Amino acid sequence: MKQNERECFSELESFSSWLEKHNKTENTIKTYKGVLHSFYKWMLLKNEYIDELSKEHLQAYIHHLEVEGKSASTIGKTLAAFSLFAHFIEKPSLVHGIEVRSSSNHKETMPEHLDHEEREKLLASVKKDGNLRDIAIVYILLHTGIRVSELCHLDRGDVIQDEIGSGLIVRGQKGEIKRTIPLSKEAGEHVNRYLSRIIRHQEALFLSNIGQRMTTRAVQYMLKKYDVNPHKLRHTFCYELVHKGVDLATVAQLAGHSDINVTKRYASLASANLKEAINRVFA
């Protein structure tokens, strides 16, 4: 292994450890590590050295991905990985001003979400099936936007119930509090109904059918019969907040976005839909 390759490998491992210390999920660490690995390979092919990394290198790699026809989702993940890596090496200015070619096809570049009719159909279907656990899960994912991994880590004690209302405490992998999210009145009612039926000494908020803490795979499998996935419910939560005029900083805080540029995608989608409505009426 050449010296430059060894340096790249060592940097990747250090970056992974840094992400773990900052409470990033296992999937996020795997994704960002993969992004950096691909970027390092590209740098090595060009005989560029990581210790000489510049904004021009990052910009050139983004353009390389665009030329290869990579999806907006892939490019977005790359930018997010670059942003965190820049903070890791204490050079945040590396990502300032990086340009991404805009696309007029918002259906491909923006997160997929449920419209009003689809949301109502989903809620009606899960209520009809009558499983209090599944109803509570769908309402939490749809009305709080938490990640499925965060949902699975919820304990019964993370449900807040006081005179102000109900909410959820979202914790990191080591149990530290990351954020607190209020529950809507309707979501709170369904969570309370579910809580009234489970045994008092149950620690995990949601258990599988075999009595173990719910896994992300189990939640995904449950939602599959309703033709949705956790990501779509999270995107719906974020989009609806932005669409109803909630400021981006608040949406980012509720969703747990470490980079507000991630939140801005929903603002772009909302603007695109408004433009489409005007064109449909007056064109």
From TrEMBL:
- The reply on keyword Cell cycle is yes
Cross-referenced PROSITE patterns: CB, TYR_RECOMBINASE
Q: What is its main location?
A: cytoplasm
For whether the record's keyword set contains Translocase, the answer is: no
Q: Name one Pfam family in it.
A: Phage_integrase
Keywords, ordered alphabetically: Cell cycle, Cell division, Chromosome partition, Cytoplasm, DNA integration, DNA recombination, DNA-binding
Tyr recombinase domain mapped to chain residues: 109-279
- Output the superkingdom of the source species: Bacteria
Query: Which InterPro entries does the protein's record reference?
Result: CB, DNA_brk_join_enz, Integrase-like_cat_sf, Integrase_catalytic, Integrase_recombinase_N, Integrase_SAM-like_N, Tyrosine_recombinase_XerCD
- What are the subcellular locations of this protein? Cytoplasm
Matching SUPFAM superfamilies:
DNA breaking-rejoining enzymes
Boundaries of every Core-binding (CB) domain copy: 1-90
Q: What's the protein here called?
A: Tyrosine-type recombinase/integrase
Q: Which organism is it from?
A: Bacillus songklensis
